[in-house]
What does this fold into?
Amino acid sequence: MLRDPCWVKSRIGARILLRAEAGKLTARDIRLARRFGVDRGVEDRLLDQALASIGAEKRRRGLLPPLPKIYVPAI
Amino acid sequence: MRWDSPAGKMLDRVVAVLPVERTWKLIVFGSAPLQLGLDETFVSADVDITMEYPDEDVAVERCLNEAQMLKGQQDFYVEVVPRYVFNAPHDWQTRAYREQRRHVEFTFPHPVDILVAKVCRVAEKDLNAFRLVRRLTGHPTPEELIRLLRNAVDIYRPRFDEEFGGDPVANTKVVWREIFGADIDVRAEIIRPALEERRKYFNQGEGLKDKLRAIGGG
It folds into this structure.
């Protein structure tokens, strides 16, 4: 399956944000963050979606607690 | 629906003059839906219609012209207007009433949506429409009208220099004074909350890229 490059870069960017939060940044992360920070294809909205997507994957694999079932509208 | 009201009879004449070989989808707005739905004596000079599909207006207007039903051809007439003239809340279709008359499907916006569209003008006749709907239905309440106007917030955008039109902010204040006997801060009650709601959606993830750039030392 061909994935949109903007989405691929944003997913990598989101993983870098998560690693930064966990204090586990590598030299490669910093290099890529510099590159993606000025890349037009990487945008706030895609990073937000990528964080949500990665979070959902982790929940599916039991690495994160499930979200409460009470529906809270996002907007 | 009171199809025996003047506007109802006029719309049936529209049905009679439109070719039967195909179906037509017309949207009726202005005062006519109030006449058909609420009070048959709420008569105005015309019946405003627009098309569900914008490219149909020329064909419809041609038929009505041949039948001598347009402005200047009859004292009570049909006016075919562009779709953008009807400035209603973005979700008005969900409240609309639809009725099939032979090969024509009519869409009648809900009375409260008709009223919101009148906020762009607010002549005395428009205020009478507010009074009529409020008297007969008890709606919209101030809270309901605020919610509806938030969903039509674009009417409050500044006009282009080349554009004509009223002042919807001032008009809204007039409506509140005349209909609810109160003042309203249009920016605080309608514009800001509506834009805030939009911002929540359109600015999702705001600042994440800046964080990424900061990680990269940028």
The interface with chain A takes residues 197, 200-201, 203-209, 211-218 of chain B (CB under 8 Å). The first strand of chain B starts at residue 24 and ends at 29. Residues 96 and 109 of chain B are 4 Å apart (CA to CA).
